[in-house]
Amino acid sequence: MATTQIELNSVSKCYDSNTRALNNIDLNISRGQWATITGPSGSGKTTLLNLIGCLDKPTSGAININESKLNSMNQKELTQFRRENIGLIFQQYHLISYLTALENVMVAQYFFGMVDKDAAIKALENVGLCHRLTHRPSQLSGGEQQRVCIARALINKPNIILADEPTGNLDSKNGQTVMSILKELNDLGHTLVLITHNNEIANQAGRIIEMIDGEILNDSTNTNRN
Length: 226
Ligand SMILES: Nc1ncnc2c1ncn2[C@@H]1O[C@H](COP(=O)(O)OP(=O)(O)O)[C@@H](O)[C@H]1O
Ligand SMILES: [Mg+2]
What we know:
Layout: E1 4-16, E2 19-30, E3 34-38, H1 45-52, E4 60-65, E5 68-69, H2 75-85, E6 86-89, H3 101-111, H4 117-126, H5 142-153, E7 160-164, H6 172-187, E8 191-195, H7 199-202, E9 207-212, E10 215-221
Parallel strand pairs: 3-8, 3-9, 6-7, 7-8
Antiparallel strand pairs: 1-2, 1-4, 4-5, 9-10
Helix pairs in contact: 3-4, 3-5, 4-5, 5-6
The structure holds adenosine-5'-diphosphate and magnesium ion.
Residues 15, 19, 21, 39, 41-47 line the site of adenosine-5'-diphosphate (ADP).
């Protein structure tokens, strides 16, 4: 049986007294799984991903990842845990505009305390960008910028990749390129939790979790996997 890697027990998140962004979520995701999260805007998808990504803490409930209890960690320990275990990819690229693709990856390396130019070049080669090393973000297409973000997210070799609408700003061709890279990473054993509004993308995952109003409406194994 597949081992549980991400475990949420009765997790709720309230940003203020009027907003219950997540309501008593119970969820287990196994090592190596690809789970897609879908649902209308405001249903709590990003909140859920941010909690798994140690970017925020739940109001109540417990989250365990790789058998570590996030609740028992302080902010510094959470940041360290994220650095060791999690790669984050967002819809917005958050690249530094005056740095080249290579420098953007190397800045991330710097924050992980492991600057290594050859490794940064290799990371960009792995996402098909060896011919774009010295381009700045404004000189790159949206798809290329997102691929720089993937290279950046992978420098610490995270066992879990969290992607929040990574193709949301891309045309279908660039979206497919980005998805094929994420799929390859999942095939290599990285757990992938991906938020998308795109049914075609959702259907490539082994599992589809549908959210509504901060709750899980549907959680199904995808037998029609493309
Ligand atoms: N930082 C925040 N402060 C206050 N409310 C927030 C914050 N982030 C999200 N929310 C609210 O929480 C709910 C869920 O938001 P979110 O997780 O971003 O949903 P989704 O990603 O599915 O669109 C929404 O009602 C949203 O307005
Ligand atoms: Mg969102």
